[in-house]
Design brief:
Distance between the termini: 115 Å
GO molecular function: DNA binding; RNA polymerase III general transcription initiation factor activity
Oligomer: single chain
Radius of gyration: 36 Å
Structural class: alpha+beta
Keywords: Nucleus, Phosphoprotein, Repeat, Transcription, WD repeat
Organism: Chelonoidis abingdonii
Subunit structure: Part of the TFIIIC subcomplex TFIIIC2, consisting of six subunits, GTF3C1, GTF3C2, GTF3C3, GTF3C4, GTF3C5 and GTF3C6.
CATH architecture of the largest domain: 7 Propeller
Number of helices: 13
Strand content: 15-25%
Shape: globular
Subcellular location: Nucleus
């Protein structure tokens, strides 16, 4: 076989020329300085071609700063062999320069981690739980580090690859003497949608401790954004909320007509009694009692768990809390709408009218950690003939006044302004009075006759919002109205709505333009929009205004697109995302994006659930909040708790504590530990309550479903989350996320259609939920309330009491105080 030629390595040294080989051999054989004929001349060794080594370049640079008068260059061997280190570098006991490259590189990595990680400022000792390390353990670790660095005998060539400046060396020395590095708030947060995302306020220069567990059982890193949210929400509301708006839109007794029992029968929901249901509370031995509530009645609030349950008569499809000022300590109200029949279906493609009932429920004075002492009751209801209500929104601020405000008849003190989207394509705005003033008027009007059991009225609305123009007819060509959103910043003068054909219309409520405002014969107003644009190719399912900057709007349509809009440039959206069929969206207060609930019909396997989507300016990918097996019908966010709650078709209501989403969500830790169930509703046979389950029925009729089956609510103990991941509700939720069964061939009686967090500070831990069964439940997330929220609530109540004491009692004095006195 032919022998292969040896391959020379690239790193092998080049051989000297042939003419000089004998001289080198002679020198090696006879010595460096002698030869046969006498003293030999010094042998010249050829220099290596190429660039100088890093050590030579480094020492040449250092030589320029040591002595400017030295004429000759510094020898590499001289410096490497000397016992003194160059200026600017410390020397070890062995005499060589002390290593700093690894130390400064570690400092750089720590700074980089701080920029990519969600970080928070520390709280006071009475505001948030923190765990601290002992100083002795820190000193031991620092001394051990120094010893290891001093005794390190690695090659010096590694040290000279990275030479820091004197400022970096001093900074590294200061970091060694300080405490262990922890995450701190980034002072330069990425700018969001052109200035509408606020910067997080810093609580001080001390560094937080995000290790260990909080008193409620969650990790401190999970609870840190919850402790930070109350102060952020309060500061933003002080800037964007108003104390009094729309002074002309006051409720009047002349516009409220009470209906008799026979007159209101056509508006009442069809079911007289609720389906049978039981409640199993975690940690409490239940005796398997089955409850059945009459229409418009409720159960007594639980003394320990504080949950409230009441029956409204039909499937719930719209729900909203009535806003009130911070610290007012007033009863809380919830407005809702339910269909008349359990089996009722509506066509979305065409307009339709019919009788409907808008209900206002009083839940009493709710505390963050204490429930109401009285049952939930129906305060009053409004009978309408405009079809079903798909969405409703209250004016965010400036519409509430104390119920003790004295007004001259026929005016009444105002509870709030409510806008409702109807299936006939119109949006009606109602001025709601306090129940006390309405009941007093009812007693004066009804004398000697039978007193109605419930207060149901026909009401003349304040304004009717309609798409079109004065020359157009009364019928709307845009189809049904599915969503409305009130401008969140004062003076709350704009209201937006989305329609079936993909149109978004925006009205200017206090307009005086003759082209947009028409006075009706009955004294009410008809308003036409000042701006309309085609947002989607199909129905607009949800619309939401940015809570910080009213120039930005987000819409979600049946064309599977989510679009972010800048109202100053409507020719194209800021960002358009096509992913899945969105059912509802909510814009979180401090962040640059929305949380989305979706229908699972278009979702990929394993991606159905709840997502956080960035508006597009930061370029973040979608953050997966929680997986869901079925369609998520509703989602709601709490600005006070930095949390979202969602209800789905499987009957599970869950909540998730969100991280700091101003940073990249890809670096967020513990995503699976941030969500937890509030309750789970299951359809089970009545004979198997507390025992083994039997096969479920496959009927689509309510009457057949409730003959032998009932609902079972399994409530979670929300007072504490200690050992939560080993408790039964959490294990059940994770198990169902993986292998849950979904039966679509029957009526989903356990389905949850609407979920709403309370926007009020006085009841910021409460949320209400309702669905197909017509049973509405209210729960308090006691475990998420913090000392920060309690302290803020006490301050707001003291401030509100001081303002209420100085408030004039007469209506003219009150309006004059705000400079809003006008002739009624």
């Amino acid at each position: 076989m032919p022998r292969r030629k040896p391959v020379r390595s690239r790193k092998s040294k080049r051989k000297p020329p042939a003419c000089k080989r004998p001289a080198r051999a002679e020198a090696e054989g006879h010595g460096a300085g002698t030869s046969e004929n006498g003293p030999a001349s010094p042998v010249k060794v050829p220099k290596k071609r190429g660039r100088k080594s890093k050590a030579e370049l480094l020492l040449l640079k250092l030589s320029q700063g040591l002595d400017c008068q030295a004429p000759e260059p510094i020898c590499v061997q001289k410096i490497l062999g000397s016992n003194e280190a160059p200026d600017g570098l410390e020397a070890t006991p062995s005499g060589r320069p002390k290593r700093r490259a690894a130390k400064v590189a570690l400092l750089y990595l720590q700074e980089l981690a701080e920029e990519l990680t969600s970080v928070y400022q520390p709280l006071a000792s009475n505001e948030g739980p923190q765990e601290s390390e002992s100083n002795s353990s820190r000193k031991k670790r620092r001394s051990r580090r120094r010893k290891e660095e001093e005794t390190d005998e690695d090659d010096l060539s590694r040290d000279v690859d990275f030479v820091p400046s004197e400022e970096v060396l001093l900074q590294a020395a200061e970091e060694e003497e300080s405490d262990v590095l922890l995450s701190e708030v980034s002072e330069s947060e990425p700018e969001a949608v052109r200035g509408h995302t606020p910067r997080m306020p810093s609580a001080g220069k001390s560094k937080p401790q995000c290790r260990g567990l909080a008193p409620n059982g969650f990790h401190n890193s999970i609870m840190a954004p919850v402790w930070k949210c109350p102060s952020i929400t309060r500061s933003l509301r002080e800037r964007h909320y108003s104390s009094w708006e729309f002074p002309d839109w006051l409720p009047s007794t002349r516009k409220w007509t009470f209906l008799s029992e026979s007159e209101c029968a056509q508006y009442l929901p069809g079911e007289m009694k609720s389906p049978l249901f039981s409640i199993q509370r975690e940690g409490i031995e239940e005796d398997g009692v089955l409850y059945r509530i009459n229409r418009f009645n409720s159960l007594q609030p639980h003394e320990e768990r504080l949950d409230v349950s009441f029956f409204v008569g039909g499937p719930v499809w719209a729900m909203e809390w009535c806003p009130c000022p911070e610290g007012s300590a007033t009863p809380q109200y919830v407005a809702l709408y339910c269909n008349k029949g359990m089996d009722e279906q509506h066509s979305l493609a065409e307009l339709h009218t019919g009788p409907a009932l808008l209900q206002l429920w009083a839940l009493g004075i709710l505390q963050p950690e204490a429930g109401s002492a009285t049952k939930a009751r129906l305060a009053y209801a409004i009978a309408t003939d405009h079809g079903c209500i798909w969405d409703m929104k209250f004016c965010p601020s400036g519409a509430w006044e104390p119920p003790t405000t004295c007004r001259k008849p026929p005016q009444m003190s105002r509870l709030g302004l409510l806008a409702a989207a109807f299936s006939d394509g119109k949006v009606l705005v109602y001025s709601l009075p306090h129940p006390e003033g309405l009941i007093a008027h009812k007693r004066a009007q009804v004398k000697g006759g039978p007193f109605p059991k419930h207060t149901i009225c026909k009401v003349q609305c304040i304004a009717t919002l309609q798409v079109g123009s004065i020359q157009a007819g009364n019928s709307s060509e845009c189809g049904q109205c599915f969503s409305v959103s009130w401008m969140p910043s004062k003076p709350h003068q704009h209201l937006a709505a989305g329609f079936y054909d993909g149109t978004v219309a925006i009205w200017n409520l206090p307009t005086k333009s003759l082209l947009q405002r028409v006075r009706q014969a009955d004294g009410s107003l008809k308003l036409y929009p000042f701006r309309c644009f085609l947002a989607h190719d199909h129905a607009v399912r949800s619309i939401e205004w940015c809570k910080v900057n009213s120039n930005f709007l987000v819409t979600a349509g049946n064309d599977r697109k989510i679009k972010f809009w800048d109202l100053r440039r409507l020719y194209e959206p800021i960002n358009s995302i096509k992913r899945f069929l969105t059912t509802e969206i909510t814009w979180l207060l401090p962040y640059n994006g929305v949380t989305v609930a979706q229908d699972n019909c278009y979702a990929s396997y394993g991606l159905c659930g709840i997502h956080y989507i960035d508006a597009g300016y930061l370029g973040f990918k979608a953050y997966f909040v929680a997986p869901r097996k079925g369609t998520v019908w509703s989602i709601s966010s709490s600005d006070w708790l930095n949390a979202v709650a969602a209800g789905d078709i499987t009957g599970e209501l869950l909540a998730a504590v969100l991280p700091d989403l101003a940073m990249n969500p890809l670096n967020i830790k513990r995503p699976s530990e941030r969500r937890f169930p509030i309750y789970k509703a299951d359809l089970v046979p009545c004979s198997s309550v507390g025992g083994e389950e039997e096969p479920r029925p496959k009927s689509r009729m309510y009457s057949e479903m409730t003959k032998e089956h009932c609902l079972r609510f399994q409530d979670t103990d929300l007072r504490s989350f200690r050992n939560f991941f080993s408790r039964e509700p959490m294990r059940r939720m994770h198990e169902q996320e993986v292998k849950a069964e979904l039966s679509l061939d029957r009526m989903q009686l356990e389905s949850i259609h609407k979920v709403r967090f309370s926007p009020n500070l006085d009841s910021h831990g409460w949320l209400v939920s309702g669905g197909q069964s017509g049973i509405v439940r209210a729960h308090c997330l006691v475990g998420l309330t913090s000392p920060v929220g309690h302290k803020l609530l006490q301050e707001c109540r003291a401030q509100f009491s001081a303002m209420d004491g100085d408030r004039p009692e007469s209506p003219s004095g009150r309006l004059a105080e705000h400079g809003l006195l006008q002739e009624q």
